[in-house]
Specification:
- With 285 residues, the protein is of the alpha/beta class.
- It has two domains: 231 residues, 3-Layer(aba) Sandwich (Rossmann fold), CATH 3.40.50.410; 43 residues, no CATH class.
- Helix content is 38%, strand content 25%.
- The chain contains nine helices and 13 strands.
- The strands form four sheets. It has a six-stranded mixed beta sheet, sandwiched between helices. Strands 1-3-2 form a three-stranded antiparallel beta sheet. A two-stranded antiparallel ribbon has the order 5-6.
- It is elongated and about 85 Å long.
- It starts with a helix and ends with a helix.
- It holds the Pfam family DUF58.
- This is DUF58 domain-containing protein.
- InterPro entries: DUF58 (IPR002881), vWFA_dom_sf (IPR036465).
Length: 285
Amino acid sequence: MAIKPLSLAAKATIDGFMHGINKSTIKGAGMEFSQYRSYQAGDDLRSLDWKMFARSDRYYIRESEMETSISVRLLVDASASMNHSDGNQTKMDYARYAAACLAYLANLQGDAVGLYIFKNTGLFAMNTRQDFQHLSRLFYQLENIKPEGSFTQQIQYKEIFAGPRKRELLIFFTDFYQQDGELLKLLDTLLPLRHEILVFHLLANNELELDFKGFSSFEDLESGQVIQLDQKKAKSAYQERMNEHLQNTRKEMLNRNIYYRTLNTNEALDQALRDFLNQRNKLNH
C-alpha cells in the first residue's frame, strides 16, 4: 500500500504522452522492418528473405530497426535542504515523483533502472535491474526518503558507478546547495566513466523571488545557522545573486558537457517532463 500512490501517479503522468528518453536505432534482427540490402558473403542465412528471392531470383537480407536498451541510474540528493517547501510540496516531493515517472518510463521501454540516494549518513544503492518487482521496490524506497543532514561525504563513487562495461544514463535530482563543491566533485568523478549525465536543478518559487510572506528570520536547513533579513531591502541584491548563481551553475554544467535543466517546484510535473523529453528528442535527431 505504501507504494501505491507513487506508482499510480507515475503511471498516470507517463501514460498517453511521453516518448522514449533513450530511443536510438541500430541495424539488426529487430521487430520493425527497415530495408533490404544485397546478400554478402558471411551474412547470417537466417536473415535471407526467401519471398524476395522467389520474386527477383536474387538474394536479399532483410534488415530491421530495434531500440537499444540501456541502464538508467536515478541519483537523488537527500540532504536536509531538499525539505524546503513552497506551499505544501517540498523539493523532495517533487524529486521523488519526477524520479518515479522516469523509472516507470525506463521500465516500460525495457531498460534496467537503479536508485542511488545521497545524504550524510551514507549512500543508499539499489543496483539496476529490469523487472516489475524491482520497480516496486524502487518506488517504495523513493516514497520513504527522509532528507536530513548534508550531502554524502566523498567515497568511492567511481567504483560504485563503474557498473557494466557500457554507457549508462545518470539522472541527478538536486537543489545544488553545497558547502565545499561536493556536488561538482561527484560529477567530476563520474565524467571519466563516459556515461551520459543529466542534472535536474530543483528550485522553489519563493527562493527564486525571495517571497516568504513577511518572515524576517531564516534558518539554513543543513547547518542550522539563523539570520535576520529584511526581505524588501534585500530583494534586489538577492535576486541578482541568485541569477548569478544559476548562470554559473549552468556554465559549470555546459563546460562538463552535462545536460542541465532547472525545475521550478510550482511547475506542473507532466509539463516539465514533456518539455524535457521533447527537447531531448530534438537533440538526438
